[in-house]
# Entry
Amino acid sequence: MSVENVVINHERIAEVIQTSLEAGRNHRLLFREGYAPERDFIQLISKYSKAYGNEMFEHNALFLNTSMVYGDSTARLFRRISDTSKFEKFAGIFEPEKALQDEEKTISALLSFYQPGNNKNAIYEWGHNCEILVARYGGDIRNFFRENENDALKIIDSLVVYPHKKGKEGLRRFGPKLSRLYLQWVTQYGLYRLKNAEKIGVPVDFQVARLLIQTKGLVLEKPSRKHLVSEVILTPFLAQMCIDNGWNPREVSEVLWTIGERGCNKAQHDNCPLEAICTSLISRKRYDKEGIFDPKDIGRYNIG
# Structure
């Protein structure tokens, strides 16, 4: 298959995914220490929610927090925000009505809690999402689910903000990747039962796409737009592959992300289950600055 100078090698992608799944299931190589950096945070918000008898809290907290999983190492982000004492100090940011009482105070708290670096835009949309939650959904994101018939596919369709949609009045900050990642966590940790959750596919970020590029599962003839690679091509393709092969999209997402985060980012190539079929290492600089996947090999042992 070829789309605008992008060629998909079905057999190689299947090999990449199957090899990664086997390593993850057997706790081999990069997976010896387990994975899922979000687990501590989700357990923390669930514990806090139960302690204060507020069922809405964990649901709103996970929703609002997911909007910050962008432009940063996911592992580093969750390490920063999973400290219990720090979390309890700033827990009010996850309660929409409280967050709206003093906008300046909330923004200051968000900056202190997240230390977002270049990802400040999400902080300034936090208030908008809280306003929508309070005004339209009674301060409970679960009412948004119910409005969409508790159907994961309908929720994604309603939640996603596409680049060409400006000034979206509803909930913001969720593209095809984050909307899927959010619902993946909702169902994985048993927070809410959704229909069609198994059909939403894989949240495609830089880590997932880079593995397919570096293993020649996805061949870019020239630098290509993130929207084309991640959203137009890989998101529907991987969703269908999971259905056709009986793979759990969450598991596929986790193992591919873990290899990118622990293997590529930290140059642990000799410890990677894809070492034998990985041909290169690509930089994320143009991805972050221009929204471009650049297939140029920067050197397997030279992070760029």
In short: The mean pLDDT is 92.
